[in-house]
Design goal:
single chain, alpha+beta, Muramoyl-pentapeptide Carboxypeptidase, domain 2, two-stranded antiparallel ribbon, binds zinc ion
Length: about 280
């Protein structure tokens, strides 16, 4: 049977002309087509921006630049402090204190002691996560949340006394360098290696990202994060960020936060909705 072309010979040149015009518009210098309506970035500009990111992340971004920018759009619209890089080389100011701390006592969350504090967004997400876990027979237990600079000072000194400086530095942050000072980090269960492999830990490991929580110090990443594996320590980053971490940074929170730290100002410049006063 002969193939019957549905496009008549008369309309074909118009279609080809249209395609050609589109191709020209996309490759024209000075007026490249943006990849996402909320960003001014063309594909080439995006490739320039990501040229120093680890190769496997670059490959993922090239494969799906629209989704990458969609998630970045959500992060840029949200709160910078949620994704602020705080590690051994990037401290918070001594006086830094989150403005919207709330007591976990006013939420349906099991805690190991009263009056633990978290930022409101993190507490709300935690409460939602606890409800969902409960439906599946897991009762989450929160053992530590917000810690002020002064409190972290006490914790750090105690750990140094107990374990010595070198061991202490693998598991306890110096004051100013703790994610707990952000009011978005949570320690679950026993805060020790015995937590690993428990039903609560396994549930969190597979489901926490859906609620915007991310494991900060995964196994085998000590060289990057500066801390040994802490199966109990999660940080609330928001759902766009945990999805970005999962799909483009292979579950590596440190790398994603470093990426955002390095490129934040540039990303704001190419984001149509960021306020320039930031
Ligand atoms: Zn912790």
């Amino acid at each position: 049977m002969k193939y019957r072309n549905s496009v008549s010979n008369a309309t074909l040149p118009y279609i080809l002309g249209g395609i050609l015009a589109l191709l020209c518009a996309c490759t024209q210098k000075g007026n490249p087509a943006p990849l996402h309506p909320h960003f001014t970035l063309s594909m080439n500009q995006l490739l320039d921006l990501i040229q120093n990111t680890p190769r496997e992340t670059g490959v993922k971004i090239k494969d799906n630049p629209q989704q990458f920018l969609e998630l970045l759009d959500g992060i840029l619209h949200s709160d910078r402090e949620l994704v602020l890089l705080v590690d051994k080389r990037h401290p918070l100011p001594k006086e830094y204190e989150p403005k919207d701390l709330v007591s976990l006592d006013s939420y349906e969350i099991r805690t190991s002691r009263p009056a633990l504090l978290l930022r409101k967004k993190a507490a709300q997400a935690l409460s939602q996560m606890a409800k969902e876990a409960k439906k599946e027979g897991i009762e989450l237990l929160v053992s530590s949340a917000y810690r002020s600079f002064q409190y972290q000072s006490t914790v750090y000194k105690r750990v140094v006394q107990e374990l010595g400086q070198e061991v202490a530095d693998r598991e306890s942050a110096k004051p100013g360098h703790s994610q707990h000072q952000l009011g978005t980090a949570v320690d679950f269960g026993s805060i020790s290696d015995s937590f690993t492999g428990t039903p609560m830990e396994r549930w969190l490991r597979t489901r926490a990202w859906e609620f915007g929580f991310s494991l900060s110090y995964p196994e085998g990443k000590e060289a990057e994060t500066g801390y040994r594996h802490e199966s109990w320590h999660y940080r609330f980053l928001g759902k766009d960020a945990t999805q970005l971490e999962r799909e483009f940074f292979f579950g590596n929170q440190q790398r994603m936060l470093e990426f955002l730290h390095i490129h934040w100002e540039t990303l704001q410049k190419v984001h149509r909705f960021s306020s320039s006063s930031h």
